[in-house]
Amino acid sequence: MDLDWMPDELAHAGPEHLDPAFVSGFDRKQGHPDPAEDLALLHSHGLTADSVVVDLGAGTGQFAVPAARHFGRVVAVEVSPAMRDVLRERAAAQGLASLECVRGGFLSYEHTGAPADAVFTRHALHQLPDFWKVLALRRIAAMLRPGGVLRLRDLIYDVPARDAESFVRDWLAGAPRDPDTGYTREDLAEHVRTEHSTFRWLFEPMLEAAGFEIADVSFEHPVFGAYTCVRR
User: Residues 165, 186, 130, 211: what is their CA dihedral angle, to the nearest 10 degrees?
Assistant: First the structure.
């Protein structure tokens, strides 16, 4: 595939995610998200022990490692070498030889073998500007079988345009002060300045244009969205 016009995905990964010192505390800062809800949802859509699942932006394997105990083939795709090192160590320590850990990202991963039954991604797509999000979503649709499931969690602004500034001010004001317990005001401000979270009212048409039907959507906070989408 000709990639010379594509952006450097490492450059869009966020410099902290390339830093082994940051990655060593990544799970704690993320709050150790429980994958049970997402695993149950995939099972409810018919996935079985024979299913193929791709985790894009797999990070340290918070989803991919437990998913490897449920599904027949799990491919953990991660662009950061530091993240891949942790993921491989975790998979090896738990004897998950079937978990595939590959270098790549939304725009460069080339799926091989049977089409995926599901694609999972958590808090990663926002690293790409909107133009590249659309291309990434189209590539995800292409690797899924018809009727396959995209389970996506990301930082998406569920606010009207007129409230954007006041929302950001309130969001930053409520951030924890201790960087060991979560993302601080400075962390969140850096996200707003340099990363590419988009508005919900822009993002949902992207999903539909890329070939998905939105089966379910929920927001636990006006910036944390969870989508279940089915490839048409």
Answer: -100
pLDDT greater than 70 at residue 172: yes
Q: In this predicted structure, which of 7-16, 107-116, 138-147, 175-184 has the lowest mean pLDDT?
A: 7-16
Residues 6+ apart with CB under 8 A from 209: 134
Residue 11 to residue 173: CA distance in whole angstroms: 29
CA 19 to chain centroid: 19
Residue 32's Cβ-count burial label (10 Å; 0-12, 13-18, 19+) is exposed
- Could you give the angle at the alpha carbon of 8 between the alpha carbons of 6 and 13, nearest 5°? 130
Radius of gyration of the chain (CA): 17
- CA-angle at 99, arms to 96 and 105, nearest 5°: 145
**What does DSSP say about strands 52-56 and 224-231: parallel, antiparallel, or unpaired?**
unpaired
Evaluate if pTM is beyond 0.85: yes
Residue from 198, 67, 195, 83 nearest 137 by CA: 198
Residues 6+ apart with CB under 8 A from 169: none
Looking at the DSSP bridge assignments, the partners of residue 122 are: 153
